[in-house]
Design goal:
By secondary structure, the protein is an alpha+beta fold. It has a single domain, classed as Pleckstrin-homology domain (PH domain)/Phosphotyrosine-binding domain (PTB) (PH-domain like), CATH 2.30.29.30. The strands form two sheets. Strands 1-2-3-4 form a four-stranded antiparallel β-sheet, covered by helices on one side. A three-stranded antiparallel β-sheet has the order 5-6-7, covered by helices on one side. It starts with 16 loop residues before the first strand and ends in a 5-residue tail after the last helix.
């Protein structure tokens, strides 16, 4: 725990800052490489290109995936997002779009799902969902949020 949490949203009375997450460029790059590789593999697997053409096209398709298929703009849109876990809620902050800042009470979180190794999906009781994208070790984030929920409910969950 930290005395000065790295967040702009003021904490509520009796609320404690626990942890923060932000997108990682390394995780984003791994995802882009995987998806570019899968695209190249699919093209090679259906006979559009030969093995040598596929091998040559792999880095080209990866770059195309990142820049042409909007993946880079996706990174730009999410790179300034910050998620903060407190003893009472999840706080979302985006330096690029402060009007999007929001908080989710821990009691409103109904499910937490891992999406590959780069995203944690947060399902809410009202049926909507949001995601913490491109973070290192989303399984650890899930564990910490579940711990905070358990503590919030007095360990009865």
């Amino acid at each position: 725990m930290s005395d000065a949490p790295p967040l702009d949203t003021p904490l509520l009375p009796h609320e404690t800052y626990l942890r923060s997450w932000q997108p990682s460029l390394a995780v984003f790059a791994q995802r882009a490489l995987l998806l570019g590789f899968a695209t190249a593999l699919a093209l090679g697997g259906i006979g559009i290109v030969s093995w040598t053409q596929w091998l040559i096209s792999l880095p080209i398709l990866t770059v195309l995936y990142v820049f042409i298929f909007d993946d880079y703009s996706n990174w730009v849109a999410h790179r300034d997002e910050r998620w903060h876990l407190t003893s009472q809620r999840m706080i979302f902050e985006n330096a690029q779009s402060p009007e999007e800042n929001a908080s989710i009470p821990l009691s409103a979180i109904s499910r937490l799902r891992l999406w590959f190794w780069w995203t944690l999906r947060i399902g809410l009781e009202n049926g909507t969902a949001t995601s913490i994208r491109y973070i290192r070790n989303p399984a650890e984030a899930r564990r910490r949020i579940l711990q905070a929920q358990s503590a919030f409910y007095g360990g009865d969950q």
